[in-house]
Amino acid sequence: METKVAVVTGANKGIGYAIVKGLCENFYGNVYLTSRNESLGQQAVSQLESMGYHPKFYQLDITDQDSINKFRDHIQETEKGIDVLINNAGIAYLLNTTDSAIKPADIIISTNYFGTLRVCETLFPLLRFNAQVVNISSSTGRLSSIPSKELKKQFSDPNLTIEQLNALMKDFVRDTRNNAHIANGWCKYPYTASKVGLSALTVIQQKYFDKEISNRNISVNSVHPGYVETDMTRYVPIKTSRDQSPLTTEEGSRAPLYLALGGHGLKGYYNMCVQTMSKQKKYIALSEKIFLTDLVSQHRNEIESIKTDAVNASEKKTWAIITTEFNSVPDHTKVTGANKGIGYAIVKGLCENLNCKVYLTARNEILGKQAVSKLKELGYHPQFHQLDITDQESINTFRNYIKENEGGIDILVNNAAIAYPVDVKEFSMELDLLIISTNYLGSLHVCETLFPLLRRNSQVVNVSSSVGHSSFIPSENIKSRFCDPNLTLNQLNQLMETYVRDLKNNVHIKYGWHENAYIMSKIALSALTIVQQRQFNEEAQNQNISVNSVNPGYVDTDMSAHTGILTVEEGARAPLFLALGNHSLKGQFVWKDLTVLDWYDSNTPELF
């Protein structure tokens, strides 16, 4: 089996050094620390070796094509390929320099943009299947950093080619030489222009890979690592508020490491490391335990599994991944599930990111099989099984099938939900009851039946909603009961039974329940998540199972009457992040942008 290979450019200090250290801790393979200065690079490797890490060093000057070619030849001969490429090398310029912008523009654009481009063009042929490419951008690498609307239009052209982007970057250099760059609508600083160019390059590169005839499923993303305290930040034009102190290099490496280690489903994105956290939100990539705990144990478990399989192939463990779906309800309702919408996108994302069995389930067998056929046309191979989450016999049949054929489950995504159309004129008690029966009780029954099949380190994802937050409960008394940290499953069920009784008697609004049954169902599902996690934590034989709820965002689906602002792929991003397991979250309420919200907070989160 080929040894995996990770390459980091400009890594003898700062963020690059911290990224190499993080890869040595969490990436099972050879990690190459490269730098232009051989002496400083060797010193960095020696320092890491004194800590117990074993990176490899190779001299690489990204502004010298001969140097890049030599590195390519070395990798091709000794490693045969690359799995992770992190383009971190870059320079800034002193703001108080007495020189004009001419020299900075020439040097900075040549290094940060064209140097990175040369590295990519030379090393991309060596990228293996499922490789991750991370381009280190900046907070200034956003399109909004360009003042001119016309220039913004050119940079954001969905059909922009590398040749056209190169011409734009050369135009900037020419305009700075003529001291006309500001008058012509460019940003003031060459560093900013170089990072905007790098972010735009990321999008183009991803499109090229997506169009490959033999799709290698390569991901290219750019990332703002945060305002990090390094030598470079003394030279970069970034303003911070008084309450923002620079990040450490370790903190700055977390978002790049998150992208480099894979399992996120992101392609062609610009990812920002959020430093200021409001309303107790926490950016996932800044969680200290993401890479240092779960990823290490996960990779070790995979290695042990491989060793076991080599000894006895008949004992090979098959991953069974379930996305539940509810499909047949009255015509005036909207449905989301695995045969379409977010559920379909989640299945597609799982097929892309995991080499294992993925089960797409649906109540309607015809629609479910049509969805599977469509995915097979795209080159994916999900399995189908009929499942009606409102029918206990159907759930039992599915459980028996999985138990007999797979032996267990590693990922369970509860995606089923029904709701009123967004333009509904009046509510119906009959439909309200069906919503509770499906969204809450149906998901509960699936969990109670399938949980005994969950394997160690399993991930359970309950797809909630932006309105599934406790702050949407009008009554403070009812809210306090939902927010009781010791709430049991029996007590939660009793709360929902009380809600249904009040609903039937048409006194639910009077007694402080929310008037919308969909909102109550999602609040209950979010509360159920916390209860379920506590139950797993208290098991005598702790299996390290994670249960989290997630708001996928306002997505353009049938359920939203196609008024949503996100694509189904964007809506699948947060559920996929949780399902793929590269995190340490347990019992959390996760937002569409991968932030963690305090579910008990009295402040209502912004919906969109």
Automatic annotation (TrEMBL):
Keywords: NADP, Oxidoreductase
Domain of life: Eukaryota
Protein's UniProt keywords contain Repressor: no
Molecular function via GO: carbonyl reductase (NADPH) activity
Family under the similarity heading: Belongs to the short-chain dehydrogenases/reductases (SDR) family.
Listed PANTHER family: CARBONYL REDUCTASE (NADPH) (PTHR43963:SF4), CARBONYL REDUCTASE 1-RELATED (PTHR43963)
Descriptive protein name: Carbonyl reductase [NADPH] 1
Species of the source: Aquatica leii
